[in-house]
């Protein structure tokens, strides 16, 4: 049990750190203003939070917002820098990821850059024009949980969303029992629509990282266009966010377990984090030190 204590504690702390993130967002923070043309970049989990924020910002009418994996944006070179963004927003827990730092260096003096970061004492602080620090959400576990969700909650609040319901829902998600069928399941498919598609991608990644599970993620309405073929008994189809009710019957015909909760989708992601943790425990794995992963990817060249 001690080997996975960090991830467990970090998951459980999310109601408190979400409240702190919301308080920061309500203040004077250097995040993109309405009307700006914005690119949001990150790696791994942070890229998926970027996808969710981009969809939310455009839906709120704040302007064009594109999400990129930082490695792909850097690889695009001057073509990315010349796309005419007013601000490039980076999401990074560690502040040390090589691809992200290289991208910020390439943009210096050409495009305004801002980072939402867990550790403010890292190179990203010098690489960007401004930072928003969330040190209370930083983590010791390699597998990200609370930093990612707190960063997205901060961004949602800054867009003008009322997030009190999400904070109530995450407390509920932490109290709910984890279904043993979820722990035993052979395979998971996560689905989302609009801003929750990024959460579906992150849910699948969390399962892979923490418990080496077979997981996939798709846009909700794409599921019938092929991916549903993988659904079968002892497998799970989990929808994050709104669902019309039509999909449940189709999944039932396959024998797969259909999961959908009437709560804020970001809070439902926290329940997925708990499932990933329980699956790791059941397999004797240590999600604080997952196979082949480190807290930050730092390249030599």
Automatic annotation (TrEMBL):
This is SIS domain-containing protein. Coiled coil: none annotated. InterPro entries: GlmS/AgaS_SIS, GlmS/FrlB_SIS, SIS_dom, SIS_dom_sf. Keywords: Repeat. Residues 28-171 form the SIS domain. Pfam families: SIS. It comes from Streptantibioticus ferralitis. The keyword rRNA-binding does not apply. The keyword Cytoplasm does not apply. Signal peptide: none annotated. SUPFAM superfamilies: SIS domain.
């Amino acid at each position: 049990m001690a080997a996975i204590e960090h991830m467990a504690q970090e998951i459980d702390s999310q109601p408190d750190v979400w409240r702190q993130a919301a308080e920061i967002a309500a203040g004077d923070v250097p995040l993109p203003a309405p009307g700006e043309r914005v690119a949001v970049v990150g790696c791994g989990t942070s890229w998926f939070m970027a996808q969710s924020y981009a969809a939310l910002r455009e839906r709120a009418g704040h302007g064009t917002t594109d999400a990129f994996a930082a490695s792909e944006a850097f690889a695009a070179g001057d073509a990315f820098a010349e796309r005419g963004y007013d601000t490039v927003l980076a999401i990074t827990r560690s502040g040390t990821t090589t691809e992200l730092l290289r991208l910020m260096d390439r943009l210096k003096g050409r495009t305004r850059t801002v980072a939402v970061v867990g550790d403010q004492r890292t190179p990203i602080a010098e690489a960007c024009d401004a930072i928003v620090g969330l040190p209370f959400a930083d983590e010791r576990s390699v597998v990200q949980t609370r930093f990612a969700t707190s960063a997205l909650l901060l961004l949602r609040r800054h867009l003008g969303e009322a997030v009190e319901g999400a904070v109530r829902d995450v407390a509920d998600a932490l109290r709910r029992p984890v279904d043993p069928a979820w722990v035993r399941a052979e395979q998971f498919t996560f689905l989302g629509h609009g801003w929750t598609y990024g959460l579906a991608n992150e849910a699948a990644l969390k399962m892979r990282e923490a418990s080496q599970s077979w997981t996939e993620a798709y846009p909700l309405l794409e599921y019938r266009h092929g991916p549903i073929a993988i659904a079968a008994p002892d497998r799970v189809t989990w929808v994050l966010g709104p669902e019309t009710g039509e999909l449940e019957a189709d999944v039932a015909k396959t024998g797969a377990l259909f999961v959908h909760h009437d709560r804020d989708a970001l809070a439902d992601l926290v329940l997925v984090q708990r499932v990933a943790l329980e699956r790791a425990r059941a397999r004797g794995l240590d999600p604080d030190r997952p196979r082949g992963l480190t807290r930050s990817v730092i390249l030599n060249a």
